[in-house]
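[agent] plan:
  1. take the single chain provided in the ticket
  2. run structure prediction with default settings
  3. attach structure tokens to the ticket
  4. add a short note for the reviewer (M.T.)
[agent] executing step 1
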Amino acid sequence: MTDAEILKANENERQSVECWTRVMGYFRPYSHFNKGKKSEFEERQWFVEEKACCSCEIKAA
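[agent] step 2 finished; step 3 output follows
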């Protein structure tokens, strides 16, 4: 079976997942954001800490 077929077969057993994020010093669920805050969340740029650290070491050298 392909991944898509497995997901389709198990669709009734799947659970929804709630995304929480830190805003202004505390955590809130994404589902409670207003339209503006959801827009801000979608515009965030994510980074990988290891890549950020490596690039700092390269610049320092």
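[agent] step 4 note for reviewer: The beta strands are 20-23, 26-29.
[agent] ticket updated
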